[in-house]
User: Fold this.
Amino acid sequence: MRNVFNLVMRIISSLLGVLVACLGGIWILQGLNIAFKVGFMVGDKRWVAWGALAVVIGVSQIVWSNTRQG
Assistant:
């Protein structure tokens, strides 16, 4: 039962990492005024930095959840 729990939590953790990384990508695109040209983030360079940070956190979450032991 413990192995099933670990597998489910690893999948959920990876999906959350993917979600955060995708949101970060959207923030980067909006900050650079490339896509989704509606809203308060459009053209604001601060969202490029926040988006890059979110991508790093999301990718780190994916790597951590798939390389940890136990």
Summary: The chain has two helices and no strands. The chain has one domain: 2-67.
